[in-house]
TrEMBL record:
Protein name as catalogued: Putative mediator of RNA polymerase II transcription subunit 33A isoform X2
UniProt keyword annotation of Chloroplast present: no
Lineage top rank: taxon: Eukaryota
Record keywords, A-Z: Membrane, Transmembrane, Transmembrane helix
UniProt source species: Davidia involucrata (Dove tree)
Low complexity bias locations: 188-202
PANTHER family: MEDIATOR OF RNA POLYMERASE II TRANSCRIPTION SUBUNIT 33B, OS07G0681500 PROTEIN
Any one GO cellular component localisation term in the record: mediator complex
């Protein structure tokens, strides 16, 4: 069983479980193993032919670190991704994984035998037991999880002198920092009784052999608090702290999860003094820092984003928050081999997440430190550092989005994006292994990596609309002089605008609209699509804009293309969120959102709402939106109030759009047949 657990702990194996949607079932299988082996004292051990010693601690640690690593891989299988992808954090809890697991097994139990024949994977992966399981079945795991949640929520308290937990804390401190204890500077935990650590080497050996893993994990946060406090007050050197943490991790590898959680919580509290990475007390990144800065600038060269300087003022070295510095120092103590890879993944995720949320330049500093240790990771580390440029700067994110539009539409002079298209948006890889050294990263890849850090997604929705309209104006003008744009002429190939074909312009407008809708869906999922259609777009139409600022025929061209762009943008966003039929769960939200938007459109057409946008933009939007629904999303119309459809149809008739008005009523259901008949008689269609 231990060999099996270790074998599936590698990142590639976990990704396969994730892609097939089997993470909840794997988690449900691991929880009983953790509960049982974590409750056993390691009185018996086995030595393998490789020299590795197997005990209940080893089995528990391997299962526990795998279980905790699964939380961030809990995504539905690719063929079922329709709604919002659960964000990293709030939903990824043990309770959530068990609920999903129970739901999956309940639904598979209701599936007929004939349906099972279509999926060999379903038959192989079906567990022998389909009974639901809950967190109450695992009291030790539940107690640990609640303790970790309490550590995250507030500072440590509640360690009472003389209790079993206090004795374990004292024993662990003596085991990890016995050299410091012998020098007369004890590392003691804060207790209500204020006792000092005590113990002997014999007691340490007994402690190593007889304590269950859950009991040790309960004491670990207090050990970490005492060690970090001692280091902050000079009673423990940084090197001794890192050595002690490594000894703790070697003694019980499962403690790495608690170490990562505790230090992450302490960093976010902001109560610890900074640790100066001077090369004496803490490792120094100075040798690689300037190189990292240059590589970040080169990676972001295609986006036009300014990279803040990494130079530290005066003679002060780079600094990290003390808990983060301790965590980074711990990771550096590990040798890079197959045996430690799964444990480094636990620490690496915590370091990456923490550094991304800390002030600039924490992540570049860590990248410089690790680049010195593992040169082959340099590209990945620099790329991770480059992403943090966007985490605290909304203007940089907007500039990144602007670069995505210009690259895709071929409006950028950069060599990697001058031809436009998806290749310019997503690029063809990067890294120092390419000819000419490390290359600029395509803007689309960067946005896929940084969009989860965007805090104000409503703001991003508004900016995407602004960038879409700006792109439409650039498409209409195509960089030509104003005197050429004013020459509207017709040829045997169709209408041409200066040197710009109207058909070619519409093709590029559709591309820009598809890109904008993709960004809306990626950034905020169905909730942002709902906000876009119910709030952002109506507010945009009511406000005054300057699309027609150029005046004359060129302004009319821009206004018309802008309306069509918004129509494509809105309908595509809706299809991403709800689909074109009613099979998905998200489609249940559609009638309310769509009904509200069409009511706004009908009221504006009736003249009950005053619009600030150009009339050509509005007419193009309404006709484009209705045309797309009639041609592509007919199921949507059956969910809309017939009176609203009649009002829209009447407005279209006033704009001499009789055929579109009739088509709208034709798919409105039985209740719209009378109005359709009247339209046929009156217009003679």
């Amino acid at each position: 069983m231990n060999v099996l657990i270790v074998g599936i702990s590698f990142i590639d194996s976990v990704q396969i479980f994730s892609l097939h949607g089997l993470v909840p079932q794997l988690a449900g299988a691991l929880m009983p193993i953790c509960e049982v082996f974590g409750s056993c004292a390691p009185k018996v051990s086995w030595t393998l032919t490789t020299g590795e010693e197997i005990s209940s601690h080893a089995v528990f640690s391997n299962a526990f670190t795998l279980l905790l690593g699964l939380w961030r891989f809990n995504y539905p299988p690719l063929e079922h991704v329709m709604g919002d992808v659960p964000p990293v954090g709030s939903h990824l809890t043990p309770e959530y994984l068990l609920l999903v697991r129970n739901s999956q097994l309940a639904s598979s139990g209701n599936t007929t035998k004939g349906q099972h024949k279509s999926s060999r994977l379903t038959r192989i992966s079906s567990p022998t037991s389909t009974e639901p399981i809950f967190m109450d079945s695992f009291p030790k795991l539940k107690l640990w999880y609640r303790q970790i949640q309490a550590c995250i929520a507030s500072t440590l308290s509640g360690l009472v002198h003389g209790t079993p937990v206090h004795q374990i804390v004292d024993g662990l401190l003596n085991m990890l920092f016995r050299k410091i204890n012998r020098s007369g500077q004890p590392v003691t935990p804060t207790t209500s009784g204020g006792s000092n650590s005590s113990g002997s080497g014999t007691e340490d050996a007994s402690l190593r052999l007889k304590l269950p893993a859950w009991d040790i994990l309960e004491a670990v946060p207090f050990v970490l608090d005492a060690a970090l406090t001692a280091c902050a007050h000079g009673r423990l050197s940084p090197r001794e702290l890192a050595t002690g943490l490594k000894d703790l991790a070697d003694f019980l590898p499962a403690s790495l999860v608690t170490i990562a959680s505790y230090f992450s919580a302490e960093v976010t509290r902001g109560i610890w003094k900074p640790a100066f990475m001077n090369g004496t007390d803490w490792p120094s990144p100075a040798a690689n820092l300037s190189m990292v800065e240059q590589q970040i600038k080169r990676m972001l060269a295609a986006t036009g984003v300014d990279v803040p300087s990494l130079a530290v003022g005066g003679s002060s070295p780079a600094a990290l928050p003390l808990p983060l510095a301790a965590l980074v120092s711990l990771t550096i103590t590990y040798k890079l081999d197959k045996a430690t890879d799964r444990f480094l993944n636990v620490l690496g995720l915590a370091v990456n997440t923490l550094a991304a949320g800390c002030p600039w330049p924490c992540m570049p500093t860590i990248a410089a430190l690790w680049s010195q240790k593992v040169k082959r990771w340099s590209d990945f580390l620099v790329f991770s550092a480059s992403r943090t440029v966007f985490h605290h700067n909304s203007d940089a994110v907007v500039q990144l989005l602007r670069s995505c539009f210009t690259s895709t539409l071929g409006q950028n002079s950069s060599p990697i994006s001058s031809s436009g298209g998806v290749g310019a948006l997503l690029g063809h890889g990067f890294g120092s292994h390419l000819s000419g050294g490390i290359s600029p990263v395509a803007p689309g890849i960067l946005y896929l990596r940084v969009h989860r850090s965007v805090r104000n997604i409503i703001f991003m929705s508004e900016e995407i609309v602004v960038l879409l309209m700006r792109s439409v104006k650039d498409i209409a003008t195509s960089g030509l002089p104003t005197e050429k744009l004013d020459k509207l002429k017709k040829t045997k190939y169709g209408m041409r605008y200066g040197q710009v074909s109207l058909a070619a312009a519409m093709t590029r407008v559709k591309l820009a609209a598809a890109l904008g809708a993709s960004f809306i869906w990626i950034t905020g999922g169905s909730s942002l699509v709902q906000s876009l259609i119910k709030e952002t777009l109506p507010s945009w139409f009511i406000s005054v804009h300057g699309l027609e600022a150029d005046g004359g025929e060129s302004g009319g061209m821009v206004s018309m293309l802008g309306g069509y762009a918004l129509a494509y943008f809105a309908v595509l966003s809706g299809t991403f969120a709800w689909g074109v039929d009613s099979t998905s769960a998200e489609s249940k939200r559609r009638p309310n959102v769509l009904g509200s938007h069409l009511e706004f459109m009908a009221s504006a057409v009736d003249g009950k709402i005053s619009l600030g946008c150009d009339s050509a933009t509005w007419r193009a939007y309404v006709s484009g939106f209705v045309s797309l629904m009639v041609g592509c999303t007919m199921m949507w119309m059956l969910e809309v109030d017939v009176d609203v459809l009649k009002r829209l149809s009447k407005g279209l008739r006033q704009w001499n759009e009789e055929e579109l008005a009739l088509a709208l009523l034709g798919i409105g259901g039985v209740d719209a047949m009378g109005a359709a008949a009247e339209l046929i008689i009156e217009s003679g269609i």
